[in-house]
Amino acid sequence: MLVVMEAGAAPEQIEAVVRHIEKMGLKAHPIPGAHRTAIGITGHQRGKDPGIVETFPGVKEVIQVSQAYKLVSREAKPDDTIVSVGGVDVGGNGIIVVGGPCAVESLDQSRTIAEQIKLGGGQLFRGGAYKPRTSPYSFQGLGEPGLEILARVREEFDLPIVTEAIDETSLKLIEQYADCIQIGARNMQNFSLLKVAGKSRKPVLLKRGMSATLEELLLSAEYIMSEGNYNVMLCERGVRTFADHTRNTLDLSIVPAIKRITHLPILVDPSHGTGKRNKVLPMSRAAIAVGADGVLVEVHHKPEEALSDGPQAISPEVFEQLVREVDAIARVLGRTLQPALAAS
Amino acid sequence: MLVVMEAGAAPEQIEAVVRHIEKMGLKAHPIPGAHRTAIGITGHQRGKDPGIVETFPGVKEVIQVSQAYKLVSREAKPDDTIVSVGGVDVGGNGIIVVGGPCAVESLDQSRTIAEQIKLGGGQLFRGGAYKPRTSPYSFQGLGEPGLEILARVREEFDLPIVTEAIDETSLKLIEQYADCIQIGARNMQNFSLLKVAGKSRKPVLLKRGMSATLEELLLSAEYIMSEGNYNVMLCERGVRTFADHTRNTLDLSIVPAIKRITHLPILVDPSHGTGKRNKVLPMSRAAIAVGADGVLVEVHHKPEEALSDGPQAISPEVFEQLVREVDAIARVLGRTLQPALAAS
Amino acid sequence: MLVVMEAGAAPEQIEAVVRHIEKMGLKAHPIPGAHRTAIGITGHQRGKDPGIVETFPGVKEVIQVSQAYKLVSREAKPDDTIVSVGGVDVGGNGIIVVGGPCAVESLDQSRTIAEQIKLGGGQLFRGGAYKPRTSPYSFQGLGEPGLEILARVREEFDLPIVTEAIDETSLKLIEQYADCIQIGARNMQNFSLLKVAGKSRKPVLLKRGMSATLEELLLSAEYIMSEGNYNVMLCERGVRTFADHTRNTLDLSIVPAIKRITHLPILVDPSHGTGKRNKVLPMSRAAIAVGADGVLVEVHHKPEEALSDGPQAISPEVFEQLVREVDAIARVLGRTLQPALAAS
Amino acid sequence: MLVVMEAGAAPEQIEAVVRHIEKMGLKAHPIPGAHRTAIGITGHQRGKDPGIVETFPGVKEVIQVSQAYKLVSREAKPDDTIVSVGGVDVGGNGIIVVGGPCAVESLDQSRTIAEQIKLGGGQLFRGGAYKPRTSPYSFQGLGEPGLEILARVREEFDLPIVTEAIDETSLKLIEQYADCIQIGARNMQNFSLLKVAGKSRKPVLLKRGMSATLEELLLSAEYIMSEGNYNVMLCERGVRTFADHTRNTLDLSIVPAIKRITHLPILVDPSHGTGKRNKVLPMSRAAIAVGADGVLVEVHHKPEEALSDGPQAISPEVFEQLVREVDAIARVLGRTLQPALAAS
User: Fold this and answer.
1) Architecture field, domain D83-337
2) Which residues of chain D have a Cβ shorter than 8 Å from any chain A Cβ?
3) Looking only at Cα atoms, what is the longest distance across chain D?
4) Nearest CA among B32, B45, B26 for reference residue B5
5) Where are chain D's structural domains?
6) Between chains, do C290 and B282 touch, taking CB under 8 Å as contact?
7) B-C Cβ pairs (cutoff 8 Å, strict)
8) Could you report the per-residue pLDDT of C301-335, keeping only the tens digit for each?
9) What is the pLDDT of residues A203-251, one digit of tens each?
10) Residues of chain D neighbouring A252 (CB-CB closer than 8 A)
11) CATH number of C2-63
12) Count of H helices and E strands in chain A?
């Protein structure tokens, strides 16, 4: 932490800040400058917040220096984490494509789409049994019967299952039925839910909140890891900006930023990230080109009849093209598409 | 809903859209124009989403027209809702000032601050027993012992209590101990929690999410009301923007927008909304001047020792000045400060 | 400037940074910490940018500390600047209300509105002769004939004139005809135009850009002042965010931030800041309550026939009410409405 | 345009809106619905703005439908525009890489870097002679001597030159010395400058403003084209958001959006778009993968001594790698790197 004094700060004011910091058991390092003095602060800050000196007379600004995350950091673990989702590795040198409908609607619908995902070269199946919807009057998902459908799809097509938990009850059920617990953007800072996910032994896919900073995303991952679950994957799904040509602005530059700071895998969701079907294929290519470990895309065989988010779902034909193109781009980077599970 | 066709759309393309809409049981109203045709859609849209025609050939854009909220709307209830929080009316002609520490730290601390709130002219006491903190390593609140402290403060000072619930468990406890359940910004779209709050008989203070639109805030209120709890108060607490002179950008223009659309009371939280102590007093005045029904501010007698958010807490002296000034401004608008509860 | 080293930075890496900084003629102050080392940098940085060390091995981050603005700062001039616009003081203890149509359309229109502004208690008249319009096909203003109309209005009603310059040519003409040169939001970083304005002897009203930070606004003011024109007034007019209930999000918290850092007057424009007529009155009250030195509002006697921005113009009746209400709120803060110029 | 009436709007209110629209010479099409009536508006709207009916009693909202741009639209010209910059084609099936220092500092510096650009496979050279700097105290560019240096570099290395104009004077000089006029982000809505550029016969590279919508960018291009200059190239360079891990958020999804709506070429600038050297290579790959017609990157042989923006410049070695990688990715899309001009 660094305290910047005003240009005209009196020596007594500087001393008052130094004394207060030292009273907190920290060390103060005054750095006199041509125009003003800055004071560096070092030491453990457990409990008390030296930021309070911002309100002292003569203080211009207090600047945070060190990050609060630990377990997610490459400083804690230099090597890339590889998370196994039902036998499919996420992270490392392979890339993956996760596909499926926004919502599980029926066994027929899920089987039809899953077959296309498998044939098209996808490694994981994602579908929602619990749907966090902005309006209480929108379709909220099939609930546990939806999870049963997902479990049958996994058995039939050897596709491990990713599905979203929206509260403790649904998370406990998902642990039994599925291979990976998704925490959605709206729950990225539902810390109680993160703690429950941290006690699970299933891997967790954590999506970035709509206005979350990189640091907040990492601290939410830290919540899960600090409870003992180290199998965490991050996911960029677009942030909210003034731009109106897409539903959200997909922030691909977070991928290299994440790769630099943390060892966790990072996926990209261009379906929610753009909200427009015709942007999903090009943004998937871009996601792999920037270095993501995979993409999640919504696929529906009859998007015009989908119960939710139809306008952003791609067809099975486009899905197949997408897998081909992201594989080709991965090869430019010396990576390859992860093989799908063999039929059991 | 309005479908806008491309300039060169063929008659068959227009007809295909019309046919599809009518197949959904809705009514299509083509409006031929000089350059292009638009198609109005009317009728109930339960279940199916006509937005899917956006993907039809020849379609340029689909524009949403009608809102999904009902119970929160002035169309449903023209008169202002007045919510009673432990005997203090919120909404209507009176304005209120809610004060208290960010976190309940001890009985002593809470009593000291509560006494100042009462003396200074505040009507409600707010303090956090459960703190949703960005980092798992930050102080997370005292939990139930904190609620016990709050209950004692209410008895001693006749100050009804507002405190935040972060999950179902804490909400159930807060129902027993406090007078009003706060749902924080990070949980504004924790729909499971909103449904639980909707089944409570205690009033709910719902804070706007950091990147929530007005419509999303109202739909979250609709979640609570659609479960049967009509005692909902809204709260603006700043949104996330590129601006860096405050922690968030307090969006005061939402106050008249809310007053126009909904009958629910709207409060403003300038402490979280700015994150800077020296902005709390001026932004409180502005909040009342723009038409808010009250303000929530963080008060601490020793901010430099606060366990959380010290830099945004004001002193009891500034609190007293704040109550005087917002009262004077309310009078310009023909409103007055709500009287505090008399000592019992 | 502060250089933060990575946790595992080697002593040689730290030394390499220190050596490079000293080679630039600056002074390096290493601050060893429990986990990592930080290095404070002091001295004049003319020309070379020590930020380059961000790319050195072992460096985690470089943090800027000191601001680049000088003349605008309260450190340079502690007392409030009062700018005289054609005899009306802006800044200091008085507040002002500036009114007028978005665009000057005709002598009749301007006279009609100016009369209402004068009767309603406004101190300055603003109208656009040069209109920066998003589309090349929109009405672009009357140009010099519009300036002639404005000059006649000033003579007839004793209302000093504020009008916008969009390039060097229009600025030179405005200098001759008007009392104050407005630089619009879209030109806030048109540095060539700022330099020309800095050579003028007429006061300048500088509007904040749609996504400008406080520091950028102040540096644009610094451009004008560094050319010798110290009569600069700042103006908040809303920033661009994801919020969609208003055209822009009016950021009132910048008013106390500006008052703290700079001695220049700050006005607020709730007409452009919200884009909605029904928000202009409440946001004007809020602007004065937060401490602004005045408001600028668009007034039109027949908004439905206005050639630009009709939906945000208020009627002369609402203008009169607005002047009354902001005056009443100013009095709560111990300020008063500046008297208008007496008829000459 | 669509007018949405309130649920309880009276028939007289609906009629008043219809009558007003027809008085303006437009056609009104009322669409009665289950809950409310909407009114479609068609016809030419030259001069008058029907948006004014938003203020009529009973009106809930007015929704814009048709875009104001014409010449930039694919509806006006279905085929891709290919712009020749000094003999190098931009747009079409080839992709290009533009490189150079942020600022021209000396003949030596420019020659050294240009040689590396040429050897590394770049097609165009960009360097700034006029630098729009946030602070008046920062290095503002060499001016005309910088243009002379650029002209010599072109002759020596057969690299056509792109350089930024900041006002009419610099634009006129650039027309003589260079092959392409860049209009920077800060001047995207400097409409006077756009008109001057529209009268030039040199191609124009127009960068998106920091908070510009897609429509605003296209309308600024329309300003240039409506003056007769059809050789316009667009450039995405990042927008301003709350995210803080990069200087701006590069919005790659605008590339497919632009390709859909307009026939103009679109380039991407990952150097300004991220502000971080280590993001330039991955974001360049992503830009080509999403479908951009080329990238602009800052290159410096000694970034630690650069007079501006050193931390975002890449080394000649990374530049060479970048050209190789974007070429490989272009091939996945069936495109190729445009050949550089042969030595003359």
Assistant:
1) Alpha-Beta Barrel (3.20)
2) 211, 213-214, 239, 241-246, 249-257, 260, 273-274, 278-279, 282-283, 285-291, 325, 328-329, 332-333
3) 77
4) B32
5) 2-63, 83-337
6) yes
7) 118
8) 987 777 776 678 999 999 999 999 999 999 999 99
9) 999 999 999 999 999 999 999 999 999 999 999 999 999 999 999 999 9
10) 250, 252, 283, 286
11) 3.30.70.1140
12) 10, 15
